[in-house]
Amino acid sequence: MEQSVGLEGKKLEIVKYAFDRFYESGFHATGMEAALAGSGISKRTIYKYFPSKEDLIEAVLQLYSENVLHELFDPVANISDPREKIIAFFDVRKAPGRMFTRGCLGMKAAQEYTGKHDHIVKLGIYANSLGEAKFLELCRQAGFAKPGHLAKQLNLIFQGALVLSHTSGNTAPFMLAKDAVATLLENASI
């Protein structure tokens, strides 16, 4: 994760460290001390910057939202044709690290906090919507007749592949998703 606007120094260090702990173990299963265990950051320092676990989770989700599109779409940035870019996006061989087998942190937060913390749910849904917004931009560039509808379909395929990859621990669902996306784009009207 890159630096976030408004986060710097020790505050950014705390958020980056907690980011991986929350991503790997979940939000409810990871307490404040566990989120920073092994970091060398004192409990006093954590609470100085983040008075509650929810404050820390919100900062983690904001950092995630600011960087997720770069991590997902930068590997295909050099492709000029928007249709090819969409298809190449689903080619996990171009994917960075574990991004495609970790699931969507935004959806994880929204699922864990539904009915418990509205702001965290909103931040999670917002993070999840960023991929759909990028698909919408690409669908418009490609000149599809119903770019909004197609972007929602692409995001649905992406989210399904993401969940299956996360639960199986491998990226095979993305190869099937890539085939489905190619067929979808081939049959979409311009």
What features would you highlight for this structure?
Tetracycline Repressor, domain 2; 190 residues; mainly alpha
Please give a structural write-up:
The protein contains 9 helices and no strands. With 190 residues, the protein is an all-alpha fold. It has a single domain (9-187), classed as Tetracycline Repressor, domain 2 (Orthogonal Bundle). α4 (53-73) runs parallel beside α7, α5 packs across α7 (118-142) and α6 (105-113) runs antiparallel to α7.
C-alpha Rg, in Å? 18 Å
Which homologous superfamily in CATH is the superfamily?
Answer: Tetracycline Repressor, domain 2
Low-confidence stretches: none
Under CATH, the topology can be stated as Tetracycline Repressor, domain 2
CATH class category label: Mainly Alpha
- Backbone shape: elongated
Cα-to-Cα separation, first versus last residue? 37 Å
In short:
By secondary structure, the chain is an all-alpha fold. The protein has helices spanning 9-25, 32-36, 43-49, 53-73, 82-89, 105-113, 118-142, 147-168, 172-187. It is 68% helix and 0% strand.
Topology of helices and strands:
Elements: H1 9-25, H2 32-36, H3 43-49, H4 53-73, H5 82-89, H6 105-113, H7 118-142, H8 147-168, H9 172-187
Helix pairs in contact: 1-4, 4-7, 5-7, 5-9, 6-7, 7-8, 8-9
